[in-house]
Protein backbone atom coordinates (compact mmCIF):
# COMPACT_ATOMS: atom_id res chain seq x y z
CA UNK A 1 0.00 0.00 0.00
CA UNK A 2 1.45 3.31 -1.07
CA UNK A 3 0.83 6.05 1.46
CA UNK A 4 -0.11 8.56 -1.27
CA UNK A 5 -2.75 6.39 -2.98
CA UNK A 6 -5.87 8.43 -2.22
CA UNK A 7 -8.21 5.95 -3.94
CA UNK A 8 -7.17 3.15 -1.62
CA UNK A 9 -8.00 5.21 1.47
CA UNK A 10 -11.32 6.21 -0.03
CA UNK A 11 -12.27 2.63 -0.97
CA UNK A 12 -11.16 1.24 2.39
CA UNK A 13 -13.18 3.94 4.13
CA UNK A 14 -16.27 2.95 2.12
CA UNK A 15 -15.79 -0.73 3.07
CA UNK A 16 -15.56 0.22 6.74
CA UNK A 17 -18.78 2.23 6.44
CA UNK A 18 -20.48 -0.88 5.07
CA UNK A 19 -19.21 -2.82 8.09
CA UNK A 20 -20.39 -0.15 10.51
CA UNK A 21 -16.81 0.67 11.58
CA UNK A 22 -17.49 4.39 11.39
CA UNK A 23 -14.62 5.81 13.42
CA UNK A 24 -12.07 3.83 11.38
CA UNK A 25 -13.79 4.95 8.17
CA UNK A 26 -13.49 8.59 9.24
CA UNK A 27 -9.75 8.11 9.78
CA UNK A 28 -9.34 6.82 6.19
CA UNK A 29 -11.38 9.69 4.73
CA UNK A 30 -9.30 12.15 6.76
CA UNK A 31 -6.08 10.85 5.22
CA UNK A 32 -7.58 10.72 1.74
CA UNK A 33 -8.76 14.33 1.97
CA UNK A 34 -5.38 15.47 3.26
CA UNK A 35 -3.84 13.96 0.15
CA UNK A 36 -6.34 15.33 -2.34
CA UNK A 37 -9.16 17.85 -1.81
CA UNK A 38 -9.61 19.05 -5.36
CA UNK A 39 -11.06 16.32 -7.53
CA UNK A 40 -14.32 14.42 -7.83
CA UNK A 41 -13.11 11.96 -5.24
CA UNK A 42 -13.09 14.73 -2.63
CA UNK A 43 -16.79 15.37 -3.30
CA UNK A 44 -17.63 11.75 -2.43
CA UNK A 45 -15.25 11.64 0.52
CA UNK A 46 -16.80 14.72 2.12
CA UNK A 47 -20.28 13.40 1.40
CA UNK A 48 -19.73 9.95 2.87
CA UNK A 49 -17.76 11.27 5.83
CA UNK A 50 -20.58 13.76 6.45
CA UNK A 51 -23.04 10.86 6.34
CA UNK A 52 -20.93 8.93 8.87
CA UNK A 53 -20.72 11.95 11.16
CA UNK A 54 -24.50 12.24 10.97
CA UNK A 55 -24.93 8.57 11.88
CA UNK A 56 -22.62 9.11 14.87
CA UNK A 57 -24.64 12.25 15.80
CA UNK A 58 -21.59 14.47 15.25
CA UNK A 59 -23.86 17.00 13.64
CA UNK A 60 -21.56 20.03 13.55
CA UNK A 61 -18.86 17.97 11.79
CA UNK A 62 -21.47 16.62 9.38
CA UNK A 63 -22.63 20.14 8.53
CA UNK A 64 -19.03 21.21 7.84
CA UNK A 65 -18.57 18.31 5.40
CA UNK A 66 -21.85 19.01 3.56
CA UNK A 67 -20.81 22.67 3.32
CA UNK A 68 -17.75 21.45 1.40
CA UNK A 69 -19.86 19.20 -0.82
CA UNK A 70 -22.19 22.10 -1.66
CA UNK A 71 -19.19 24.30 -2.54
CA UNK A 72 -18.02 21.61 -5.00
CA UNK A 73 -21.48 20.92 -6.44
CA UNK A 74 -24.02 23.65 -5.54
CA UNK A 75 -26.73 22.26 -7.83
CA UNK A 76 -26.86 18.81 -6.21
CA UNK A 77 -30.00 18.39 -4.05
CA UNK A 78 -28.75 15.63 -1.77
CA UNK A 79 -26.11 17.50 0.23
CA UNK A 80 -28.76 20.11 1.08
CA UNK A 81 -31.01 17.30 2.28
CA UNK A 82 -28.22 15.80 4.37
CA UNK A 83 -27.17 19.13 5.84
CA UNK A 84 -30.82 19.74 6.72
CA UNK A 85 -30.96 16.40 8.55
CA UNK A 86 -27.89 17.38 10.58
CA UNK A 87 -29.34 20.78 11.47
CA UNK A 88 -32.55 19.06 12.48
CA UNK A 89 -30.47 16.90 14.82
CA UNK A 90 -29.18 20.11 16.45
CA UNK A 91 -32.78 21.41 16.76
CA UNK A 92 -31.97 24.22 14.33
CA UNK A 93 -35.30 23.69 12.64
CA UNK A 94 -35.61 26.93 10.69
CA UNK A 95 -32.18 26.36 9.14
CA UNK A 96 -33.03 22.75 8.42
CA UNK A 97 -36.23 23.79 6.63
CA UNK A 98 -34.26 26.27 4.53
CA UNK A 99 -31.95 23.44 3.39
CA UNK A 100 -34.93 21.18 2.65
CA UNK A 101 -36.51 24.01 0.65
CA UNK A 102 -33.36 24.37 -1.46
CA UNK A 103 -33.03 20.63 -1.96
CA UNK A 104 -36.69 20.33 -2.99
CA UNK A 105 -36.21 23.21 -5.44
CA UNK A 106 -33.42 21.18 -7.06
CA UNK A 107 -35.17 17.81 -6.76
CA UNK A 108 -38.93 18.04 -6.09
CA UNK A 109 -39.57 14.29 -6.26
CA UNK A 110 -37.96 12.94 -3.07
CA UNK A 111 -40.78 11.79 -0.75
CA UNK A 112 -38.53 11.38 2.27
CA UNK A 113 -37.41 15.01 2.21
CA UNK A 114 -41.01 16.23 2.34
CA UNK A 115 -41.44 13.89 5.30
CA UNK A 116 -38.40 15.36 7.06
CA UNK A 117 -39.42 18.94 6.31
CA UNK A 118 -42.89 18.22 7.67
CA UNK A 119 -41.34 16.74 10.81
CA UNK A 120 -39.25 19.89 11.33
CA UNK A 121 -42.36 22.06 10.91
CA UNK A 122 -44.09 20.04 13.63
CA UNK A 123 -41.29 21.08 16.01
CA UNK A 124 -42.13 24.70 15.19
CA UNK A 125 -45.87 24.00 15.59
CA UNK A 126 -46.48 24.86 11.96
CA UNK A 127 -48.98 22.05 11.78
CA UNK A 128 -50.98 22.96 8.70
CA UNK A 129 -47.79 23.34 6.66
CA UNK A 130 -46.57 20.03 8.01
CA UNK A 131 -49.75 18.29 6.83
CA UNK A 132 -49.16 19.69 3.33
CA UNK A 133 -45.64 18.21 3.32
CA UNK A 134 -46.89 14.81 4.47
CA UNK A 135 -49.61 14.90 1.81
CA UNK A 136 -46.92 15.47 -0.84
CA UNK A 137 -44.71 12.75 0.63
CA UNK A 138 -47.59 10.26 0.46
CA UNK A 139 -48.46 11.37 -3.06
CA UNK A 140 -44.89 10.59 -4.15
CA UNK A 141 -44.54 7.37 -2.14
CA UNK A 142 -47.81 5.86 -0.96
CA UNK A 143 -46.12 3.10 1.07
CA UNK A 144 -44.06 5.39 3.36
CA UNK A 145 -45.47 4.43 6.74
CA UNK A 146 -43.64 7.26 8.52
CA UNK A 147 -45.56 9.90 6.55
CA UNK A 148 -48.93 8.46 7.50
CA UNK A 149 -47.79 8.24 11.11
CA UNK A 150 -46.57 11.83 11.29
CA UNK A 151 -49.62 13.17 9.48
CA UNK A 152 -51.77 11.30 11.99
CA UNK A 153 -49.69 12.78 14.80
CA UNK A 154 -50.30 16.32 13.50
CA UNK A 155 -54.03 15.70 13.16
CA UNK A 156 -54.05 14.42 16.74
CA UNK A 157 -52.38 17.66 17.87
CA UNK A 158 -55.02 19.61 15.90
CA UNK A 159 -57.77 17.63 17.72
CA UNK A 160 -58.81 15.96 14.44
CA UNK A 161 -59.03 12.59 16.13
CA UNK A 162 -61.14 10.71 13.58
CA UNK A 163 -58.86 11.71 10.69
CA UNK A 164 -55.81 10.94 12.81
CA UNK A 165 -57.08 7.40 13.38
CA UNK A 166 -57.44 6.89 9.61
CA UNK A 167 -53.79 7.82 9.13
CA UNK A 168 -52.67 5.53 11.95
CA UNK A 169 -54.68 2.73 10.35
CA UNK A 170 -52.65 3.16 7.14
CA UNK A 171 -49.40 3.48 9.08
CA UNK A 172 -50.08 0.24 10.94
CA UNK A 173 -51.01 -1.61 7.73
CA UNK A 174 -47.62 -0.68 6.30
CA UNK A 175 -45.70 -1.21 9.55
CA UNK A 176 -47.66 -3.50 11.90
CA UNK A 177 -44.80 -3.63 14.42
CA UNK A 178 -44.74 0.09 15.23
CA UNK A 179 -45.61 0.26 18.93
CA UNK A 180 -45.82 4.05 18.84
CA UNK A 181 -48.51 4.03 16.15
CA UNK A 182 -50.73 1.84 18.32
CA UNK A 183 -50.06 4.12 21.28
CA UNK A 184 -51.08 7.35 19.54
CA UNK A 185 -54.05 5.69 17.85
CA UNK A 186 -55.12 4.56 21.31
CA UNK A 187 -54.80 8.13 22.60
CA UNK A 188 -56.97 9.38 19.75
CA UNK A 189 -59.62 6.75 20.49
CA UNK A 190 -59.54 7.70 24.14
CA UNK A 191 -60.15 11.33 23.18
CA UNK A 192 -63.24 10.15 21.30
CA UNK A 193 -64.31 8.22 24.44
CA UNK A 194 -63.83 4.88 22.66
CA UNK A 195 -62.14 3.57 25.76
CA UNK A 196 -62.40 -0.17 25.15
CA UNK A 197 -60.91 0.20 21.66
CA UNK A 198 -58.18 2.45 23.05
CA UNK A 199 -57.20 -0.23 25.57
CA UNK A 200 -56.88 -2.79 22.76
CA UNK A 201 -54.37 -0.47 21.06
CA UNK A 202 -52.45 0.10 24.29
CA UNK A 203 -52.34 -3.67 24.80
CA UNK A 204 -50.76 -4.12 21.37
CA UNK A 205 -48.30 -1.30 21.94
CA UNK A 206 -47.19 -2.87 25.23
CA UNK A 207 -46.88 -6.27 23.57
CA UNK A 208 -44.50 -4.73 21.03
CA UNK A 209 -42.66 -2.53 23.53
CA UNK A 210 -43.12 -3.82 27.09
CA UNK A 211 -40.64 -1.34 28.59
CA UNK A 212 -42.50 1.88 27.83
CA UNK A 213 -43.74 3.34 31.12
CA UNK A 214 -45.86 5.98 29.38
CA UNK A 215 -48.06 3.42 27.63
CA UNK A 216 -48.83 1.60 30.89
CA UNK A 217 -49.82 4.91 32.44
CA UNK A 218 -52.03 5.91 29.52
CA UNK A 219 -53.74 2.52 29.64
CA UNK A 220 -54.22 3.00 33.37
CA UNK A 221 -55.78 6.44 32.84
CA UNK A 222 -58.18 4.97 30.29
CA UNK A 223 -59.17 2.23 32.72
CA UNK A 224 -60.02 4.93 35.27
CA UNK A 225 -62.50 6.26 32.71
CA UNK A 226 -64.13 2.82 32.70
CA UNK A 227 -63.98 2.66 36.52
CA UNK A 228 -61.67 -0.36 36.30
CA UNK A 229 -59.71 0.99 39.23
CA UNK A 230 -57.89 -2.17 40.34
CA UNK A 231 -56.63 -2.83 36.80
CA UNK A 232 -55.64 0.83 36.48
CA UNK A 233 -53.56 0.61 39.66
CA UNK A 234 -51.78 -2.46 38.26
CA UNK A 235 -50.84 -0.44 35.17
CA UNK A 236 -49.57 2.50 37.21
CA UNK A 237 -47.56 0.09 39.36
CA UNK A 238 -45.88 -1.22 36.19
CA UNK A 239 -45.26 2.30 34.94
CA UNK A 240 -43.70 3.34 38.24
CA UNK A 241 -41.39 0.31 38.26
CA UNK A 242 -40.14 1.35 34.80
CA UNK A 243 -39.98 5.08 35.61
CA UNK A 244 -39.89 5.54 39.40
CA UNK A 245 -39.54 9.34 39.18
CA UNK A 246 -42.63 9.87 37.05
CA UNK A 247 -44.71 12.25 39.15
CA UNK A 248 -47.76 11.91 36.88
CA UNK A 249 -47.88 8.15 37.43
CA UNK A 250 -48.16 8.61 41.19
CA UNK A 251 -50.83 11.27 40.71
CA UNK A 252 -52.92 9.07 38.41
CA UNK A 253 -52.53 6.06 40.68
CA UNK A 254 -53.84 8.29 43.46
CA UNK A 255 -56.88 9.09 41.32
CA UNK A 256 -57.56 5.38 40.87
CA UNK A 257 -57.28 4.81 44.61
CA UNK A 258 -59.83 7.55 45.24
CA UNK A 259 -62.17 5.60 42.96
CA UNK A 260 -61.78 2.66 45.36
CA UNK A 261 -62.13 4.96 48.39
CA UNK A 262 -58.55 4.19 49.45
CA UNK A 263 -58.13 7.76 50.61
CA UNK A 264 -55.07 7.35 52.82
CA UNK A 265 -53.19 5.51 50.05
CA UNK A 266 -54.32 8.10 47.50
CA UNK A 267 -52.98 10.90 49.67
CA UNK A 268 -49.63 9.08 49.93
CA UNK A 269 -49.45 8.96 46.12
CA UNK A 270 -50.35 12.65 45.82
CA UNK A 271 -47.65 13.40 48.41
CA UNK A 272 -45.09 11.53 46.30
CA UNK A 273 -46.23 13.29 43.16
CA UNK A 274 -45.74 16.69 44.80
CA UNK A 275 -42.38 15.57 46.24
CA UNK A 276 -41.29 14.78 42.66
CA UNK A 277 -42.00 18.41 41.74
CA UNK A 278 -45.45 18.07 40.22
CA UNK A 279 -46.37 21.51 41.58
CA UNK A 280 -49.75 21.47 39.88
CA UNK A 281 -52.99 23.04 41.09
CA UNK A 282 -54.99 19.93 40.23
CA UNK A 283 -52.78 17.69 42.38
CA UNK A 284 -53.40 19.85 45.45
CA UNK A 285 -57.10 19.93 44.61
CA UNK A 286 -57.32 16.13 44.41
CA UNK A 287 -55.33 15.68 47.61
CA UNK A 288 -57.60 18.17 49.34
CA UNK A 289 -60.66 16.28 48.05
CA UNK A 290 -59.32 13.04 49.56
CA UNK A 291 -58.70 14.78 52.87
CA UNK A 292 -62.31 16.00 52.93
CA UNK A 293 -63.45 12.37 52.68
CA UNK A 294 -61.39 11.68 55.81
CA UNK A 295 -62.80 14.83 57.48
CA UNK A 296 -59.30 16.31 57.67
CA UNK A 297 -60.77 19.70 56.90
CA UNK A 298 -57.93 21.95 58.05
CA UNK A 299 -55.43 20.07 55.88
CA UNK A 300 -57.89 20.09 52.98
CA UNK A 301 -58.23 23.88 53.22
CA UNK A 302 -54.42 24.22 53.12
CA UNK A 303 -54.34 22.18 49.89
CA UNK A 304 -57.17 24.20 48.36
CA UNK A 305 -55.38 27.44 49.28
CA UNK A 306 -52.29 26.21 47.43
CA UNK A 307 -54.35 25.08 44.47
CA UNK A 308 -55.99 28.51 44.20
CA UNK A 309 -52.59 30.21 44.52
CA UNK A 310 -51.39 28.23 41.49
CA UNK A 311 -54.60 28.58 39.48
CA UNK A 312 -57.10 31.10 40.86
CA UNK A 313 -60.11 30.40 38.62
CA UNK A 314 -60.99 26.82 39.56
CA UNK A 315 -64.69 26.59 40.33
CA UNK A 316 -64.60 23.26 42.14
CA UNK A 317 -61.74 24.26 44.42
CA UNK A 318 -63.70 27.18 45.84
CA UNK A 319 -66.75 24.96 46.15
CA UNK A 320 -64.92 22.29 48.13
CA UNK A 321 -63.01 24.81 50.24
CA UNK A 322 -66.37 26.23 51.23
CA UNK A 323 -67.55 22.71 52.06
CA UNK A 324 -64.46 22.12 54.22
CA UNK A 325 -65.08 25.35 56.12
CA UNK A 326 -68.68 24.23 56.64
CA UNK A 327 -67.29 20.98 58.07
CA UNK A 328 -65.37 23.12 60.59
CA UNK A 329 -68.56 25.15 61.32
CA UNK A 330 -66.85 28.24 59.86
CA UNK A 331 -70.10 29.35 58.28
CA UNK A 332 -69.31 33.01 57.67
CA UNK A 333 -65.88 32.14 56.22
CA UNK A 334 -67.43 29.56 53.90
CA UNK A 335 -69.92 31.93 52.26
CA UNK A 336 -67.26 33.92 50.28
CA UNK A 337 -66.05 30.66 48.74
CA UNK A 338 -69.54 29.92 47.43
CA UNK A 339 -69.81 33.56 46.30
CA UNK A 340 -66.67 33.02 44.22
CA UNK A 341 -67.96 29.67 42.94
CA UNK A 342 -71.12 31.39 41.71
CA UNK A 343 -69.14 34.27 40.18
CA UNK A 344 -67.10 31.80 38.15
CA UNK A 345 -70.07 29.55 37.32
CA UNK A 346 -73.38 31.42 37.67
CA UNK A 347 -75.46 28.33 36.82
CA UNK A 348 -73.97 26.10 39.55
CA UNK A 349 -77.13 24.97 41.34
CA UNK A 350 -75.36 23.18 44.21
CA UNK A 351 -73.39 26.32 45.07
CA UNK A 352 -76.63 28.31 45.55
CA UNK A 353 -78.04 25.48 47.66
CA UNK A 354 -74.94 25.30 49.88
CA UNK A 355 -74.83 29.05 50.31
CA UNK A 356 -78.51 29.00 51.23
CA UNK A 357 -77.85 26.27 53.78
CA UNK A 358 -75.07 28.36 55.34
CA UNK A 359 -77.34 31.40 55.51
CA UNK A 360 -79.91 29.29 57.33
CA UNK A 361 -77.21 28.41 59.84
CA UNK A 362 -76.50 32.15 60.27
CA UNK A 363 -80.18 33.08 60.56
CA UNK A 364 -80.23 34.91 57.21
CA UNK A 365 -83.50 33.30 56.17
CA UNK A 366 -84.75 35.72 53.52
CA UNK A 367 -81.42 35.57 51.70
CA UNK A 368 -81.38 31.79 52.11
CA UNK A 369 -84.81 31.62 50.45
CA UNK A 370 -83.50 33.51 47.42
CA UNK A 371 -80.54 31.15 47.04
CA UNK A 372 -82.76 28.06 47.32
CA UNK A 373 -85.17 29.51 44.76
CA UNK A 374 -82.28 29.92 42.31
CA UNK A 375 -80.93 26.45 43.02
CA UNK A 376 -84.36 24.94 42.31
CA UNK A 377 -84.67 26.98 39.12
CA UNK A 378 -81.35 25.60 37.92
CA UNK A 379 -81.90 22.01 39.04
CA UNK A 380 -85.53 21.12 39.63
CA UNK A 381 -84.77 17.51 40.56
CA UNK A 382 -82.44 18.04 43.53
CA UNK A 383 -84.06 17.37 46.92
CA UNK A 384 -81.68 19.48 49.01
CA UNK A 385 -82.77 23.03 48.04
CA UNK A 386 -86.39 22.11 48.78
CA UNK A 387 -85.37 20.92 52.24
CA UNK A 388 -83.28 24.05 52.85
CA UNK A 389 -86.02 26.34 51.55
CA UNK A 390 -88.52 24.53 53.74
CA UNK A 391 -86.28 25.17 56.77
CA UNK A 392 -86.08 28.90 55.96
CA UNK A 393 -89.85 29.09 55.55
CA UNK A 394 -90.40 27.41 58.93
CA UNK A 395 -88.20 30.06 60.53
CA UNK A 396 -90.08 32.82 58.66
CA UNK A 397 -93.45 31.41 59.74
CA UNK A 398 -94.49 30.23 56.26
CA UNK A 399 -95.52 26.85 57.63
CA UNK A 400 -97.89 25.51 54.97
CA UNK A 401 -95.48 26.43 52.20
CA UNK A 402 -92.67 24.82 54.19
CA UNK A 403 -94.65 21.57 54.36
CA UNK A 404 -95.00 21.60 50.58
CA UNK A 405 -91.24 22.05 50.14
CA UNK A 406 -90.45 19.23 52.58
CA UNK A 407 -92.84 16.91 50.75
CA UNK A 408 -91.16 17.79 47.44
CA UNK A 409 -87.77 17.03 49.00
CA UNK A 410 -88.93 13.66 50.36
CA UNK A 411 -90.53 12.75 47.03
CA UNK A 412 -87.16 13.33 45.34
CA UNK A 413 -85.10 11.68 48.09
CA UNK A 414 -87.02 9.53 50.60
CA UNK A 415 -83.81 9.03 52.64
CA UNK A 416 -83.08 12.70 53.31
CA UNK A 417 -83.19 12.93 57.12
CA UNK A 418 -83.12 16.75 57.14
CA UNK A 419 -86.35 16.93 55.16
CA UNK A 420 -88.19 14.73 57.68
CA UNK A 421 -86.78 16.77 60.55
CA UNK A 422 -87.93 20.07 59.03
CA UNK A 423 -91.34 18.68 58.19
CA UNK A 424 -91.59 17.47 61.77
CA UNK A 425 -90.86 21.03 62.93
CA UNK A 426 -93.63 22.33 60.66
CA UNK A 427 -96.10 19.77 62.00
CA UNK A 428 -95.14 20.68 65.58
CA UNK A 429 -95.81 24.35 64.94
CA UNK A 430 -99.20 23.44 63.48
CA UNK A 431 -99.98 21.38 66.57
CA UNK A 432 -99.99 18.09 64.67
CA UNK A 433 -98.01 16.33 67.37
CA UNK A 434 -98.29 12.72 66.25
CA UNK A 435 -97.22 13.53 62.70
CA UNK A 436 -94.33 15.59 64.06
CA UNK A 437 -93.19 12.74 66.29
CA UNK A 438 -93.35 10.24 63.40
CA UNK A 439 -91.20 12.53 61.24
CA UNK A 440 -88.69 13.12 64.03
CA UNK A 441 -88.36 9.37 64.57
CA UNK A 442 -87.93 8.75 60.84
CA UNK A 443 -85.32 11.51 60.69
CA UNK A 444 -83.48 10.02 63.69
CA UNK A 445 -83.43 6.58 62.07
CA UNK A 446 -81.95 7.99 58.87
CA UNK A 447 -79.41 10.15 60.73
CA UNK A 448 -78.22 7.08 62.64
CA UNK A 449 -77.85 5.17 59.37
CA UNK A 450 -75.74 8.01 57.96
CA UNK A 451 -73.79 8.31 61.23
CA UNK A 452 -74.61 12.04 61.24
CA UNK A 453 -73.97 12.84 64.88
CA UNK A 454 -74.72 16.57 64.70
CA UNK A 455 -78.09 16.00 63.07
CA UNK A 456 -78.85 13.15 65.45
CA UNK A 457 -78.29 15.48 68.42
CA UNK A 458 -80.61 18.13 66.92
CA UNK A 459 -83.37 15.57 66.31
CA UNK A 460 -83.08 14.13 69.80
CA UNK A 461 -83.50 17.66 71.19
CA UNK A 462 -86.58 18.15 69.01
CA UNK A 463 -88.08 14.89 70.30
CA UNK A 464 -87.35 15.89 73.88
CA UNK A 465 -89.01 19.27 73.40
CA UNK A 466 -92.02 17.62 71.79
CA UNK A 467 -92.36 15.15 74.66
CA UNK A 468 -92.24 18.03 77.15
CA UNK A 469 -95.15 19.78 75.42
CA UNK A 470 -97.42 16.72 75.35
Supply database-style keywords:
Serine Threonine Protein Phosphatase 5, Tetratricopeptide repeat, single chain, elongated, 470 residues, mainly alpha, 27 helices
Strand content: under 5%
Rg of Cα set: 35 Å
Given helix and strand content, the structural type is: mainly alpha
Question: What is the CATH architecture term of one domain?
Answer: Alpha Horseshoe
SSE order, as H and E?
A: HHHHHHHHHHHHHHHHHHHHHHHHHHH
CATH homology-level superfamily of one domain? Tetratricopeptide repeat domain
Helix residue percentage? over 70%
Shape: elongated
The number of distinct helices, counting runs of at least 4 residues, comes to 27
CATH class identity of one domain = Mainly Alpha
Secondary-structure blueprint:
Blueprint: H1 6-18, H2 22-35, H3 40-55, H4 59-72, H5 77-89, H6 93-106, H7 111-123, H8 127-140, H9 145-157, H10 161-174, H11 179-191, H12 195-208, H13 213-225, H14 229-242, H15 247-259, H16 263-275, H17 281-293, H18 297-310, H19 315-327, H20 331-344, H21 349-361, H22 365-378, H23 383-395, H24 399-412, H25 417-429, H26 433-450, H27 453-469
Helix pairs in contact: 1-2, 1-3, 2-3, 3-4, 3-5, 4-5, 5-6, 6-7, 7-8, 7-9, 8-9, 9-10, 9-11, 10-11, 11-12, 12-13, 13-14, 13-15, 14-15, 15-16, 16-17, 17-18, 18-19, 19-20, 20-21, 21-22, 21-23, 22-23, 23-24, 23-25, 24-25, 25-26, 25-27, 26-27
Amino acid sequence: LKSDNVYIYFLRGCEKVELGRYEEAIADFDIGLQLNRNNDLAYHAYYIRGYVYHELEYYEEAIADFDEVIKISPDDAHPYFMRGYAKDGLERYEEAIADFDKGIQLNPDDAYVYFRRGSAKIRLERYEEAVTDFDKSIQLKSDLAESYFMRGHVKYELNQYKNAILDFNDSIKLNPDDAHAYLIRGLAKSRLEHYEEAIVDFDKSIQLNPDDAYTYCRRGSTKIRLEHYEEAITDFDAGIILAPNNAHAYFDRGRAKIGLEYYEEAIADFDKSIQLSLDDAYVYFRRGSAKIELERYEEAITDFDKSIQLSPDQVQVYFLRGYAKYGLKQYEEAIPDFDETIRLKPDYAAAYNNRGHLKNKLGQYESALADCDESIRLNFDDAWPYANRGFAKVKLGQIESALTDCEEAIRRDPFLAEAYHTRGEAYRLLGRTQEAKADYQKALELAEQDDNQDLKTEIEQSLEELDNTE
